[in-house]
């Protein structure tokens, strides 16, 4: 079962957006922040036995990215002189991610655009609106979260400082492993219960990388929202196909 939430594609760079919008009305959705790194797993990760050097290179790259993320977090914390200063609160991100994840998919299945508009950034919201509008009128969806197979795992934290006083964007990527099902239901008319469409509703294990985003705007932190989902980083994209250096 693939992710219900569309995997968002990188959008215009922040520099391009700022040049096009010097007035300071920056949108919430700036795309996936540059440098986001998600360690590949399984067969995507170079083997420590057959590709030990390449695996070591990837581990070093991950360590460098984590150091950069620590520096970014420090910059974010001291971005504003107002007190109390903002806290990273990464331990609280897991429960927040689970709650937003459940809320997002339930709202999408129900066609609840009002709820989606309060928890999704612009690009994801537009995609959901389009998919909801394209549904046959006599059909609805029933999404069921049977259980979380593992607790949410924090895998990336990036910060982009905006060129407005006391303003920045944070993005956190959280790995979600769940067992869920999506059933398409068809209406059978007034007074009769909806019927499930054959071949839908199978319970499956799903792994997704949920991207949460939070903006600080002029020293005021806004609530966490969902930017979308993304994928593990391709080692070739950071090391090169033939890199051994």
Please outline the helices and strands.
Layout: H1 14-20, H2 52-77, H3 93-110, H4 113-119, H5 122-133, E1 139-148, E2 153-161, E3 168-186, E4 195-196, E5 204-217, E6 220-221, E7 225-230, H6 235-239
Antiparallel strand pairs: 1-3, 2-3, 3-4, 3-5, 5-6, 5-7
Helix pairs in contact: 3-4
Identify low-pLDDT runs: none
Shape: globular
Distance between the termini: 38 Å
DSSP helical segment count: 6
- Compute the gyration radius: what is it? 20 Å
**Count of DSSP strands:** 7
DSSP strand (E) fraction? Answer: 25-35%
Rounded average pLDDT: 88
What class would the helix/strand composition place it in? alpha+beta
Largest sheet: 7 strands, antiparallel
> Into which percent range does the helicity of residues fall?
25-40%
């Amino acid at each position: 079962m693939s992710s219900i939430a569309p995997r968002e594609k990188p959008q215009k760079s922040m520099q391009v957006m700022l040049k096009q919008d010097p007035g300071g009305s920056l949108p919430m959705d700036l795309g996936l922040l540059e440098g986001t790194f998600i360690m590949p797993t399984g067969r995507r990760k170079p083997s420590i036995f057959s590709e030990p050097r390449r695996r070591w290179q990837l581990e070093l790259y991950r360590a460098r990215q984590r150091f950069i993320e620590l520096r970014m977090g420090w910059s974010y914390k001291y971005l504003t002189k107002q007190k109390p200063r903002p806290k990273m609160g990464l331990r609280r991100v897991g429960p927040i991610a689970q709650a937003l994840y459940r809320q997002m998919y339930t709202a999408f299945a129900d066609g609840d655009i009002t709820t989606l508009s309060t928890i999704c950034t612009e690009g994801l919201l537009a995609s959901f609106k389009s998919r909801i509008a394209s549904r046959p009128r006599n059909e609805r969806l029933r999404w069921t979260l049977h259980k979380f197979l593992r607790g949410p795992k924090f895998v990336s934290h990036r910060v982009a400082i905006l060129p407005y006083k006391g303003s920045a964007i944070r993005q956190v990527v959280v790995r979600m492993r769940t067992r869920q099902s999506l059933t398409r239901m068809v209406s059978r008319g007034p007074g009769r219960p909806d019927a499930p469409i054959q071949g839908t509703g199978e319970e499956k294990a799903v792994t997704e990388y949920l991207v949460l985003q939070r903006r600080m705007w002029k020293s005021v932190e806004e609530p966490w929202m969902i930017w979308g989902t993304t994928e593990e980083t391709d080692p070739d994209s950071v090391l090169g196909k033939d890199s051994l250096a």
